[in-house]
Amino acid sequence: MNWEEINNQLEKEFTFTNFVEAIDFVNRVKEPAEAMQHHPDILIHSYKKVKIMLTTHSEGHVTLKDHELAGKIDKLA
C-alpha cells in the first residue's frame, strides 16, 4: 500500500507478523522522526498493525517534510 493523503495528512498502515515486530518498527521510526524534529501520529492496533499519520501541524496540511519522512519510514518497514 502506498501513502494516501486523507484529511490533510499522509496515512499508511503496515502489517507485521506479530506484536513484537510492530513495536520494534515503531521504535525504529523514532530515530528519523526525532532527527527531523517531525513527529508522526502512530496507532498500534489489531496487535500487529501500525498506522502512521503525517502532517505538518504548523502549516495545517501535508508538506515536503511529510513526504521526506514517509520515504524514510518506508525504508524501515
Automatic annotation (TrEMBL):
Its EC number is 4.2.1.96. One of its GO terms (molecular function) is 4-alpha-hydroxytetrahydrobiopterin dehydratase activity. Keywords: Lyase. Pfam families: Pterin_4a. It comes from the Bacteria. Gene3D superfamilies: Transcriptional coactivator/pterin dehydratase. GO terms for biological process: tetrahydrobiopterin biosynthetic process. InterPro entries: PCD_sf, Pterin_deHydtase. It catalyses: (4aS,6R)-4a-hydroxy-L-erythro-5,6,7,8-tetrahydrobiopterin = (6R)-L-erythro-6,7-dihydrobiopterin + H2O. PANTHER family: PTERIN-4-ALPHA-CARBINOLAMINE DEHYDRATASE (PTHR12599:SF0). Belongs to the pterin-4-alpha-carbinolamine dehydratase family. NCBIfam families: PRK00823.1-2. This is 4a-hydroxytetrahydrobiopterin dehydratase. It comes from Prolixibacter bellariivorans.
